[in-house]
Every structure is written in C-alpha cells, then in structure tokens.
Amino acid sequence: MKKDYSQVYNEMQDENFILSYKGQVGFVQINSLLRIIEDRLETAEQNPKTRKKVYNIATECYQNLSHHLEKHSEEIGMKGLAVFEAYQDKYIIATGNYVFKQSEQKIKEKIDYINSLSKEELREYHKQILGSEGFSEKGTAGLGFVDIARKSEGNLRYEFSHLDDNLAFFTLKVEIPRIENKQEHSS
Questions:
Q1: Which of 28, 79, 94, 161 could form a cystine bridge with 169, CB 3.0-4.6 A?
Q2: What's the number of domains the chain is made of?
Q3: Residue 108 contacts by C-beta under 8 Å, 6 or more apart in sequence?
Q4: What is the pLDDT of residues 40-78, one digit of tens each?
Q5: Is residue 186 part of a domain?
C-alpha cells in the first residue's frame, strides 16, 4: 500500500490538529499527553465544563489505549497512536492500536452494544459491570468504552484496518461538542 506522506503532512498542518503522538503508551506518555491537552484547553476553551469533559474523556481514551495494547505488542514493535483535534463546534479525540484478529469481533460487539444503549441504559449497564464483573487481568472492570460513551454522550466511532491475516489497526474516535458559555450571551 502506497502512502502519500505529503497529504499526511498537510493534514497535520491544519490549525485544528492540536496533538499527534505515535509511540509507546505508558504512564509517563499518558501524563505528558494529558498535560499538553490541559495546557491547550486552558488557553483555547472558555467553558470550564467543556474543558473538564474533554480532559476526562481524553484521560479515559488514553488509559484505555494503554490497557488494551496487545500483550505481545512490544515484542513485535507495535505502538499506540493518540490524536487531539479542536474545531469551532467540537473536539475530536482519536486513538489507535494494533489488535489481533481474534480480538476484533469482541471489540466490535462491545462497542456496537454500547452504541445501541440509551443514556439511562448505559448508566444501568455501568452499574451492572461494577456490580458483577469485577476486575480483569488488566486491572480494569471493562468500563473504558462505557465511561467514554457516558461522558461523550455520543456514539463511539471505530474502524479496523486489516494489515494481514492476523493483525488489524483499531482506531477509536470520540467527538465532544463544545458547549456555549451562557455568560457570553447573557449580557
């Protein structure tokens, strides 16, 4: 597959493209990414509720990325991808990582199920997971996608790009609408 790197470069020159990271995703990297996002939000976002919501969703997305890199990803040179974009009406947080094909169907089913739930059903599903499933071997209760969906109040978008018979690149994209600051319109 031929890649047009000049197109990638031009896309990254877009003023809406705030952050792009490809590499190891661990505690240190997540904290660095979140500090950058926090700094950018502090200067670019007037509404404190939106700032908090975007920061919390970014935290969930990047932690989810860290928890779900495949077990052998370091051995085969796999790294994660984190992107943050800001537009006049929304923010976009995207993550990407390699997954083995046997994980793909489980991920699709979970996200599709989460996307099918109403706000109330999502809240109940969250309670159900906390009450019955306990913690996974990764130290999570399987709440990552659920928490992201609850906080973003929208569908999680995803894509799998197949690289070979065993491996796919999984991309998760979350859009967070900007909330108008009511104080601006009251005067």
A1: 161
A2: 1
A3: 158, 160
A4: 999 889 899 999 999 999 999 998 887 766 555 555 556
A5: no
What is the Cα gyration radius of the chain? 17
Between vectors from CA 25 to CA 115 and to CA 79, what angle results, nearest 5°? 90
Single out the residue of 22, 48, 20, 49 nearest to residue 36, CA to CA: 20
Q: Is 183 among the domain residues?
A: no
Range(s) of the domain holding residue 161: 11-178
Residue 154 sits at φ, ψ, to 5 deg, of -155, 170
**pLDDT above 60 (res 1):** no
Sequence-separated (6 or more) residues with CB below 8 Å from residue 83:
17, 19, 20, 21, 92, 93, 94, 95, 96
Contact at 8 Å (CB) between 146 and 122? yes
Region of residue 98 (left: phi > 0; alpha: psi -120 to 50; beta: else): beta
Degrees to nearest 5, angle at CA 158 with 173 and 93: 10
pTM to 2 decimal places? 0.81
Residue 5 falls within a domain, yes or no? no
Q: In the numeric block, which tokens belong to residue 168?
A: 């796919």
Q: Where residue 103 sits, what CATH number does that domain have?
A: 3.30.565.10
